[in-house]
Design brief:
135 residues, alpha/beta, Nucleotidyltransferase, domain 5, 5-stranded mixed sheet
């Protein structure tokens, strides 16, 4: 069983929209997956929404027994905290939770060490990587 957490803008579960900001999202959608199939979907409120200190949200996610954290964006400190707890981080994906989950299960959504989409041949622009963009 793998538990995947998604930063979410709403409490609609798989139909919900991904949030661009990991620490400042109002909800987390937790999806339990077994053999590539969704077993259970749980939505939890972010207890630190709009009022978090560095490290609090990763600790909360870790307390939810999460294996993979998927968010639109995340700072390097949070990524390091997750990695030190053995939690894989995937960033740079937006859309519905369901679409991002499907991309992850197909192996299309990659970890946050790179940009996560380097196996495409089209030209694309990276936003937030070394351009003075701050979270």
């Amino acid at each position: 069983m793998t538990r995947i957490a998604f930063s979410a803008e709403d409490n609609l579960g798989l139909d919900g929209q991904m949030s661009g900001h990991f620490g400042r999202c109002p909800y987390f959608t937790l999806v339990d997956v077994e053999d590539g199939k969704v077993e259970k979907v749980t939505v939890v409120e972010n207890p630190f929404y709009n009022n978090h200190q560095p490290g609090q949200v990763p600790a909360f996610i870790h307390s939810q027994n999460v294996n993979v954290m998927i968010a639109g964006g995340m700072g390097p400190m949070a990524i390091n905290l997750f990695n030190s707890n053995g939690i894989e981080v995937v960033t740079g994906y937006m859309g519905t939770v369901k679409n991002v989950l499907e991309a992850y299960l197909k192996g299309e959504a990659k970890g946050a060490s790179g940009c996560g989409h380097d196996d495409h041949d089209h030209e694309h622009h990276h936003h937030g990587h070394g351009q003075g963009f701050t979270h």
